[in-house]
Specification:
The protein has 210 residues and is α+β, with helices and mostly antiparallel strands. The chain has four helices and six strands; from the N terminus they run H-H-E-H-E-E-E-E-H-E. 39% of the residues lie in helices and 23% in strands.
Length: 210
């Protein structure tokens, strides 16, 4: 009996030690890779800016000003997000929002949302996600054209019923077997439009060189 108890204690101790070692390894890897991943995401955000602008504006020699905001209710994170005010010939031509869909199937989905000066959507792009390959990753342009549904759309008011996936009575298609991901992206883009409606003048007045 004593031998059996000693064996169980020894196995439990080894299991606990193994679990501790694995956890420590994950923490160490995350510590050293997180800054590099964050840098890559920022670089991708910058590269993707032109993709969410109209073709004419993307091909022009536009200028930009930036406003850093912290609006977790509308932009999906308690971390600072950047709004770019795109100017052409000293006139406001477009806005590019960094935002996050916090409720994707596999966690956060980082997005860029481009708006024309009249608040219609010029483009939406996913810049980072952990969605399931073959299902949720169809939010990427290299996997499907789903994200192009947003082009030219606008929000009539905060309760605009069209801003939902068709399964919920809205106008946006979902993926077979993966409704959570498109639902999260639609909600995040809608929140950007709500925020923009309430804060466009503040952005115009307070954005600075960047």
């Amino acid at each position: 009996m004593t031998t059996k108890r000693q064996s169980m204690t020894k196995n439990a101790a080894m299991l606990a030690l193994f679990a501790f070692a694995c956890t420590l390894l994950v923490v160490i890897v995350n510590y050293f890779t997180e800054p590099r991943i964050e840098q890559q995401v920022k670089a991708q955000l910058i590269r993707s800016t032109n993709e969410v602008l109209s073709n004419k504006l993307a091909d022009s020699d536009y200028q930009q000003r930036c406003l850093i905001v912290n609006e977790p209710q509308f932009l999906g994170s308690d971390k600072d997000q950047i709004i770019r005010l795109i100017e052409l010939n000293q006139r406001n031509a477009a806005y590019v929002y960094q935002t996050i869909a916090p409720d994707g199937y596999s966690g956060q989905i980082r997005l860029l949302v481009g708006l024309n000066a009249d608040s219609t959507i010029s483009g939406v792009r996913v810049v980072q996600h952990n969605e399931t390959p073959g299902l949720g990753d169809k939010v990427e342009t290299r996997k499907s054209d789903w994200i192009y549904q947003f082009n030219g759309q606008r929000l009539m008011d905060d309760k605009d019923p069209r801003w939902a996936v068709k399964k919920d009575g809205g106008q946006f298609d979902a993926f077979t077997g993966a409704t959570i991901t498109p639902r999260a992206v639609v909600k995040a883009v809608k929140n950007v439009l709500i925020y923009h409606t309430k804060n466009q003048q503040n952005i115009n007045d307070n954005a600075t060189d960047c």
